[in-house]
Amino acid sequence: MAVSVGMKAGARLARPWLRLLSTRTLGTRAAPTHKPVLPFEAIPQCPGNRWLRLLQIWRDQGHENRHLDVHRLFQTLGPIFRGILGWVVRGWAPRQSPALSLGMRCAQVVFPLVMTLFELARNPAVQRALRQESLAAAASITEDPYKAISELPLLRAAIKETLRLYPIGVTLERVLHSDVVLQNYHVPAGTVVQFFLYSMGRSQAVFVRPERYNPQRWLDSRLRFSHLAFGFGVRQCLGRRLAELEMVLLLHHVLKSFQVETLQQEDVTMTFCFLLKPVSPPLLTFRPVASPSSL
């Protein structure tokens, strides 16, 4: 009873664009109607509310109804949140932030794993090379799983290659602390600069034959800074090392034991739903590998 009351209270206190999700989670029959938007003056005045500060700036610039546009945008994005991260979004309370972090980390691991296995199934020569590397390092990794990062450079390169073609997040943003000249354009300090990872990963100006799945390209140290799927610098993804270790270990054990195959040779159609993901997962077949001598 106490849990039910607490969940209902949380649903009522949630942001307008999350109330419908929370009440549906409780099993109620809430109609999918848009919630009314409070006028700016009625929004709770919280000193730490950054959105409130942004709305005030917009009002000072003459955009008094901009918060209505923002609310309509969140209503449009509602199905995306419900489909991808809705089950972990509950008003962004500090006590629930670990659940949100876990949900983001799961998404960062699952989709790259699926697409890596698909590309290895389409490229059997690459898969054989990775299997040989995994078998050679099996004893060392069994003794110390953390050695997978150093003992499997080609497998780590394959993950980078997957994230080049199928980045989870399509953009990165940084705010310039000083003036910069980019391709003869003067960009002043304070400007928000965006990196479009999907476009960069498929650009011939950055990668040779970008349409080809070629993990060996990442063994060249000159491309080290071209891998930006997890961000870079002090503000890179906090779960990067854990996500990389999870992917390396899982692929290591799968490749040791199974031959991955697919009948699908055409590219997988991707869609953007807050994260980049396949419209429908590729169909894969896992055939047991008898022994190293049979490879």
TrEMBL record:
UniProt enzyme class: oxidoreductase
Presence of the UniProt keyword Metal-binding in the record: yes
EC number: 1.14.15.4
UniProt entry keywords in alphabetical sequence: Heme, Iron, Membrane, Metal-binding, Mitochondrion, Monooxygenase, Oxidoreductase, Steroidogenesis, Transit peptide
InterPro entries, sorted: CYP11_CYP27_families (IPR050479), Cyt_P450 (IPR001128), Cyt_P450_CS (IPR017972), Cyt_P450_E_grp-I (IPR002401), Cyt_P450_sf (IPR036396)
Transmembrane segments: none
GO biological process terms held by the UniProt record: aldosterone biosynthetic process; cellular response to peptide hormone stimulus; cholesterol metabolic process; cortisol metabolic process; glucocorticoid biosynthetic process
Subcellular location: Mitochondrion membrane
Alphabetized GO MF terms: corticosterone 18-monooxygenase activity; heme binding; iron ion binding; steroid 11-beta-monooxygenase activity
Pfam families: p450
Cofactor(s), by name: heme
Gene Ontology CC terms: mitochondrial inner membrane
Catalysed reactions, semicolon-separated: 21-hydroxyprogesterone + 2 reduced [adrenodoxin] + O2 + 2 H(+) = 18-hydroxy-11-deoxycorticosterone + 2 oxidized [adrenodoxin] + H2O; a steroid + 2 reduced [adrenodoxin] + O2 + 2 H(+) = an 11beta-hydroxysteroid + 2 oxidized [adrenodoxin] + H2O; 21-hydroxyprogesterone + 2 reduced [adrenodoxin] + O2 + 2 H(+) = corticosterone + 2 oxidized [adrenodoxin] + H2O
Highest rank taxon of the organism: Eukaryota
Family: Belongs to the cytochrome P450 family.
Name the record gives this protein: steroid 11beta-monooxygenase
Species this protein is from: Dipodomys ordii (Ord's kangaroo rat)
